[in-house]
Amino acid sequence: MNTEITPDALRERLLDVGYTDTQITDNAVKHLLTLKGSAAEMLGQWYETGRVPKFEAIEGIDKKFLRDNLKMKDPAIIMAYGMLIENPKYNAMLLKRQALKMQK
User: Which DSSP symbol is given to 34?
Assistant: First the structure.
């Protein structure tokens, strides 16, 4: 990642893409800035280009699943990707369970 992302700059970016000015957004900023490895690289790519790259499905969950079934915005997709990398089986189960709830 070429750009150092500051909390204030990231918060502004989240507000620009439709997040609301709430504690939830502040928590999202904190979470995003703690990402490591490929999830941190994905955040940097999104911050610089406005696009989240595709990623190979992890336990059956990919970018399309997160967007279509859970209606996630790009920053949430990045957070979910970080969760899936950290603990694939458990977090995939949680995300699939949430998708089922949203279908009802």
Answer: T
Helix 88-103 crosses helix 74-86 at what angle (to 10 degrees)? 140
Q: What is the pLDDT along the chain (104 residues), one digit of tens a residue?
A: 446 899 999 999 999 999 999 999 999 999 999 999 999 999 999 999 999 999 999 999 999 999 999 999 999 999 999 999 999 999 999 999 999 999 87
What is the distance in angstroms between the CA of the first residue and the CA of the last residue of the chain?
40
CA-based nearest residue to 43, from 10, 88, 91, 72: 10
Helix H, strand E, coil C: the string for 56-75 is CCECCECHHHHHHHHCCCHH
Whole-model pTM: value is 0.92
CA 96 – CA 29 distance, rounded (Å): 24
Structure tokens at 86: 């950290």
CA-angle at 42, arms to 40 and 45, nearest 5°: 115
